[in-house]
C-alpha cells in the first residue's frame, strides 16, 4: 500500500526534514539520506533549499554503483520533487 503524501511547497530544507520525520518508519532510509544531505549542505551554505537537495540527490544517484542505495536515492528524490509540486 502506498502512502499518499500531500504536495506542498517547502522553502527551507528543515521543512522537508520535519515533514519526513513525521512519516514514521515508512520512509526511514530516505529520511536519513535527506537529513544527511541537509547537514552536508548546511555545512557549506547558510540557506538550503529543496532544489539544493534535489541536485545533490541527482549527483549521488548518478555516481552510485550499489543498486539498493541507488534505489533509496531515487525514492528520496521522488519524494522531495513531489513536495515541490
Unreliable runs, pLDDT <50, ≥5 residues?
1-10
Which range does the strand content fall in?
under 5%
The first-level CATH class name = Mainly Alpha
- Total helices: the number is 4
Give the % helix. Answer: 55-70%
Strand runs, count: 0
Radius of gyration: 12 Å
Specify the overall morphology: globular
Distance between the termini: 22 Å
The structural domain count equals: 1
The helix-and-strand class reads: mainly alpha
CATH-defined fold name? Single alpha-helices involved in coiled-coils or other helix-helix interfaces
Q: What integer is the average pLDDT?
A: 80
Going by CATH, the architecture would be Up-down Bundle
Largest sheet: none
Element-by-element helix/strand order? HHHH
Question: What do you see in this structure?
Answer:
InterPro entries: AriR. This is Histidine kinase. One of its GO terms (biological process) is cellular response to acidic pH. This protein is mainly α and 85 residues long. The protein has one domain (13-83): Single alpha-helices involved in coiled-coils or other helix-helix interfaces. Helix content is 65%, strand content 0%. The protein is built from four helices and no strands. The chain has helices spanning 13-21, 28-42, 50-63, 67-83. Helix 2 (28-42) crosses helix 3 and helix 2 (28-42) crosses helix 4 (67-83).
Amino acid at each position: 500500500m502506498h502512502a499518499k503524501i500531500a504536495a506542498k511547497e517547502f522553502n527551507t530544507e528543515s521543512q522537508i526534514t520535519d515533514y519526513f520525520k513525521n512519516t514514521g518508519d515508512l520512509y526511514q532510509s530516505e529520511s536519513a539520506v535527506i537529513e544527511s544531505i541537509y547537514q552536508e549542505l548546511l555545512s557549506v551554505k547558510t540557506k538550503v533549499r529543496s532544489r539544493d537537495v534535489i541536485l545533490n540527490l541527482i549527483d549521488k544517484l548518478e555516481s552510485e554503483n550499489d543498486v539498493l542505495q541507488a534505489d533509496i536515492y531515487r525514492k528520496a528524490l521522488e519524494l522531495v520533487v513531489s513536495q515541490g509540486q
